[in-house]
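Fold in tokens:
===
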Amino acid sequence: MQVTSTVDGQCAVVQASGELDVATAPELRSYLHQLVDDGARTVVVDLTDVGFLDSTTLGVLISVHKRLVEVGGVVELVVPHARLLRIFQITGLDRVFTIHSSLADTTV
């Protein structure tokens, strides 16, 4: 897994790549929570280059969502691939997160 971000004021765009699973989830959680602690109120997580994600990763995204809701913020996801989008649909998380098909479709 690799994670990079671009921060502009209270907006952070996070680009993840590789596999997001039980082994990488703690690092991802720390990274995203640090962005929130540093003042990000809109966090866009771009999953374009993610080949696999598991339920642990979904838990990380939910935890960041909850932290941001508490401070009036939001998490948006970029999920261009049907195989990953299906995971969000099956779990009902497509009703929790705003999901875009490309970074260009986001509000940032």
